[in-house]
Amino acid sequence: MAEPIKIEGLAEFQRNLRKLDSDLPKALRIAFNDATGLVIDYARPRVPRRSGRAAGTIKAKSTRTEARVSGGGRRAPYYPWLDFGGKGPGNRPAQRPFYKEGRFLWKALVVKRDALQSALEGALIGVAEQAGFEVT
Fold this sequence. Notes:
Layout: H1 10-20, H2 24-35, H3 37-43, H4 53-56, E1 59-60, E2 69-70, H5 79-84, E3 86-87, E4 95-96, H6 105-111, H7 113-130
Antiparallel strand pairs: 1-2, 3-4
Helix pairs in contact: 2-7, 3-6
């Protein structure tokens, strides 16, 4: 399974942004959502389709301190079964080979890791410049 990307000093950066302007930390969340588009764009077309509902549930759900992507939920409760496998949803006997690393989201993180890291760095620089800092 892929290791999450960790950004040292992010919480402190976010706190300092809040001291400057209470709306600036929201820009972090928006910037993180934009960066996670790389993972979403890779994973979404690879999800098997009948209705497209499961693929449609893959979306960014970032916070001010974390860039997140999720899939499934009420609209497609079977999504984890599609991604990771195992016994079928509910009591259905459909068996799918279990992949601990998943088929779509974690794989997208592995494949797009370098591009995602660059996009996250760019997002942080963009928010810092928006706050009025000169970044070199």
